[in-house]
Task: structure prediction
Amino acid sequence: MFSKGVQYMLLSTLFFALMNVCIKLVPHIPAVEIIFFRSVISVVMSYMVLRRQQVNIWGTHKGLLITRGITGAVALVLYFTTLQNIPLATAVTIQYLSPIFTTILGIFIVKEKVKPWQWVFFLVSFAGILVIEGVDVRISPFYLMIGVAGAAISGISYNIIRKLNTREHPLVIVFYFPMVALPFSGIYSLFEWVPPAGWDWAILLLVGVFTQLAQYYMTMSYQSEELSKVAHLNYIGIFYALVLGFIMFDESFTFGSYAGMALVLLGVILNIRYKSKLAKTTEAETS
Result:
C-alpha cells in the first residue's frame, strides 16, 4: 500500500490535470484572468474552512508563508507566460524540470539527502517526458530562460512547504498563494478583461475548485514525505493528461507516447520502491 504522502501527491496530480482540461476549454479567456478567478475561489474556500475549524488564517510563520505565496505566484505567472509564447509541448517539458529542481534545492534548504540511484530514476522519468512531449529547438533563448526560471522558483516554493512541515495547517499555506496572486491578477485583468459567458462561469468555478484540491493535497504530500520521494510523482501527471486528452479532445497516442509513458512509470516505481526499501532498512537498524 502506498504511503499517505504518495497517495496525496497522486490525488494532487489528478486534480491539476483536471484543472488543465478546464483551462483548455476556455482558450478565449486570458491566462491572468483565469489566475484571478482561481485565486478568488481559493481564498474564499480556504477562509471558510479555516474559520469553521477556528484556525488562525494568518498562521505563525509569516515570513515563510509570504515567501511561499510570492514564489508560487511568480512561478505560475512565468509558466503561463511560456504557455502563451512557445509550443505547448515545450512549455510542459520545461515545467517538468521542477521536480528535479525541488530535489536539488532540498539538499540545501531542508537538508534532505538524495541517493545516487535516485538521480538515475529522475533522469529515466524525465527522458520519458521528452519522448512523449518532444522538444522544439526553435524556441527563443529568452522564453527558454523564463520557463527554466519558473521551474526553479517552483522548486523553491515546494521546499518552503517542506520546511514549514506540519507547523502550519495545510490550508493556511494554500491561503497565502492566492492572497499574493490576487492583487496582481486583479489589476492586470482590469485592463485586459474578457467577460465570461454561459458555461464559462461553471468552467472557471471548476478551475478554482480543482486548483484548491490540487494545492491542498500537494501541500499535505510535501509536509508528510521527503521531497525526493514525492516530487518525482509529478511526472504521473503526464498519464492523466494523455488519458483526459483522449477522452475529452480525441487526442491520439503514438508509439512514442507509449514508450515515454513506460519510461515515466519505470522511473517513478523504481524511486518509490527504492525509498521504501531504504526506510525499511533504516527502521530495522533502529530497532
